[in-house]
Amino acid sequence: MVELVAKTYAEALFSVALELNQLDQYGQELDFVMESFKEHTDFYELYKTPRISNEEKKQIIEAVFQGKLSAEIMNFLKILSDKRRTNVIEAIVKDYHKLAHEHQNIVEAVAVTTVPLKNEDKVALEEKLSKMTGKKIILKNEMDQTIIGGMLIRMGDKVIDGTVQGRLSKLRESLAQIIV
After folding, report:
1. Which domain of life is it from (predicted)?
2. What is the pTM of this model?
3. Domains and CATH numbers, the chain
């Protein structure tokens, strides 16, 4: 249910952004809102809670974001309050970015490594993945010591496992088949 609601609101905002040629601007503003919520969790809880009236939520939004967001994004946040959908804003923002990226032929990818990628390695990997997919790649780097070494790349529903942990798992499976 939440996914459907979020997708509906994201599609509505996306169509307005396309019509007004504000796709990137709205995406940046939505990111700013989410960053503000993450920095000020009490404010975020106030925005999401049904215990505070819609009018109070709108006043809080005005006080916090006035002059920092476009009128359309301000109105969007107020509409979410009016419709009692403030609890799905994270999913809406995620779906909005997904729609915008699809429209712009962009794919988000995550490279999981044990150490941070150097900038030149990140750029080279983005270029290689871009050639592979035919799309622009936005690469994020996450650290995970459990992979032991190598790299795991996630792009949408695709996974490229070049980790030591992955290779050991495959070796373990092969040995298990031989022994059985």
Report:
1. Bacteria
2. 0.78
3. 2-101 (1.10.520.20), 106-179 (3.40.30)
